[in-house]
Amino acid sequence: MAQRDQNAGAAARLAADLAGMVRFFSRLPVPRIGPADDPAAMPDFGRAVVVLPFASLVIAGPAAALLWLLGSTSLPAPAAAALALAAGLLATGALHEDGLADTADGFGGGASRARKLEIMKDSRIGSYGAAALALSLLIRTVLLAALVEDAGAQGAALGLLAAAAVSRSTAICLVAALPPARIDGAGRAAGTVTAGAAGAGFAIAAGTALLIAAAPIGGDAVLGAAAAAGAAVAGLGLLAVRQIGGQTGDVVGAGQQVAEIAFLSVAAAAVG
């Protein structure tokens, strides 16, 4: 009986962590799912990082479903891809895109570490941020359209889900690898994510992506895409250390964007 209660408690915590991660990274409505779930609380990233790949599948589900649906019609593939990305923006509230824009503005427009961090906290978007945001949307639209044309609508949708799982789990590794660049903000509020937990989350994400997208894209290509996402985030991490001395929530958001682009680039090249 005690073992059964312990297992039930662990399952309840995992479900609560999953719900918390979906709430944190999206605007999708998630009701309270049990006594272990507190919708008002910040997720415990140190524990919940291992369920982030599955939360990412939920968050990317509407965009992937729309891509599958529209890609199966006579609508041009770029239009289907752009509309799917729009659905993704609605689901997340453009959370990661906002991080990318703020990071680009701060890194590009600030002359000192303090000034870069100040710019990154400013809600207004500058020329660097606008350019980065436009390029991210354009590149991902082109890559998703290529997947629709070469792997079919279903294959493109599965590729998008795989990219979502890998990109967020890879970006969270920045929290484990780098110190917070400021004393407040999401980068510090996320708490302690150990290297072991971040590595486990990335491994789970890569395995999930392999299960989802190996058939339409190829197993070797999926693993190569995951490696490319990791390399892209590592490069961003090195840049962040040089620019501001660590990570912030904006940098983590930018990490998701560069990881998704890297993953989709390898996937599109593999099926093209």
Q: Summarize the helix and strand pattern as letters.
A: HHHHHHHHHHH
By DSSP, the count of extended strands is: 0
Spans of at least 5 consecutive residues with low confidence: none
The end-to-end distance, rounded to whole angstroms, is 55 Å
Query: What's the tally of helices?
Result: 11
How many domains in all? Answer: 1
The fraction of residues in strands falls at under 5%
Largest sheet: none
Shape assignment: globular
| Alpha-carbon Rg, integer | 18 Å
- Structural class call reads mainly alpha
What is the percent of helical residues?
over 70%
The residue-averaged pLDDT reads 94
Brief overview:
The chain is an all-alpha fold. The protein has 11 helices and no strands. The protein has one domain (45-271).
Annotate the secondary structure layout.
Blueprint: H1 2-25, H2 45-48, H3 52-71, H4 77-92, H5 95-109, H6 113-121, H7 127-177, H8 186-189, H9 195-217, H10 219-244, H11 249-271
Characterize the structure shown.
The protein is mostly helical and 272 residues long. It contains 11 helices and no strands. The longest helix is centred in the middle third of the chain and has 51 residues, at 127-177. It is globular. The model has no long low-confidence stretch (mean pLDDT 94).
